[in-house]
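User: For my dataset I need records formatted as: sequence, then structure tokens, nothing else. Please produce one.
Assistant:
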Amino acid sequence: MTVLFADQALLPDGWARDVRFEIAADGALAAVEPGAEATGARRLPSPVLPGMPNLHSHAFQRAMAGLAERAGPADDSFWTWRKVMYDFVARLTPEAVEAIATQLYVEMLKAGYTAVGEFHYLHHDPDGRAYADPAEMSSRVIAAARAAGIGITHLPVLYAHGGFGGAETNAGQRRFLHDAESFAVLVETLAARHGGDPEVRIGIAPHSLRAVTPELLAQAIVMLDALDASAPIHIHIAEQEKEVADCLAWSGARPVDWLLGNFDIDRRWCAVHATHMTLAETVALARSGAVAGLCPTTEANLGDGLFPLRAYLDADGALGIGSDSHISVSPVEELRWLEYGQRLAARRRNIAAGSGAPHVGAALLRASLAGGAQALGRSIGALAPGARADLVVLDAEHPILAGRSEDDLIDSWVFSGNANLVREVHVGGRRVVQDGRHADEDAIAARYRAVLAALI
């Protein structure tokens, strides 16, 4: 039993003083006792927060962050960015993917993310042929998570078509493609290998309504239910206006409306982006219990648009944050720009504040902890008995946090300055960041630099 002690910590019921954490050998919190004594415990610097889940990641895109910021000959959009991504992904080897993902996951940990949802669609070799091990690329990403020390919900992507209605794919998509049978082999292989690991959860990610037919999506859900009827299901939805127009042309319905009307969408689902919704869709998605997976820095970078945050919160919708293409790897920046985008659109302040939750940063943090944990399908996001011992310690001595406490401290962390205020990070009871550094960061960064030198 590992025993830690914090002068102040954010518990499910609010801030508490003199908190004793007892951590079992399996990395779960066996006991959380406020108002306790520090006898026999290692004192943590304070304050202590639950680790933040990052619910949406494409790890390999970390290596191309910044390389798509050159204007093309025509108007640039998500669709022109995608061409740059396809050209980049064609050159990636399994070894390169592992090195890139490991570097990314170290950066996530240092920023305060303690778990990641890896929406993984790079499955095959550059010619589109399956590797001898059908889970070769997935295994590389999971190995990266283990090496860095971050928890992972691995979401192999089902991608079969190039557009709505079963349209043909293009050459840039050949490394992504599966049919129902080969996808089942991949998921079943991963479930068999990692079913007993408390730091790994396996779900699925139908890429989008344009990449799977209704029949294929239904088959994938039946397959997953046979393995784990509570496993997470993530899907890109309504990210761009063209996607909405194409869905209307195909089905007569908008993407979120079509999905809710044709499948049983509930708490195990994560609707990633869901940017372009009518008010009726917004309320219906919130009432379904699904999580809206929001990635404000990537959505801004791609020019996607703004999520209807206030209407969604008014309908008691669940949400979480992700760093997606890793233009930024910072929960602070995702939370900050989730709010700032709304302020710019509405031309007023404190949009995410609600009745009984006047602190905007704290409200967004709590919502993202709960929604992220739900979306990743793991017992994380809260400092409570039975949950994983994922803890983040902020630097209370930094001038940005001077004189702050409790929710004022969270607001200052989110909305003040650009320094990384994360001092210490624990995942499953294991300390992976100390004094702002990861123990293996130099060696991991050296491998990453070598890979980038070969790629670019």
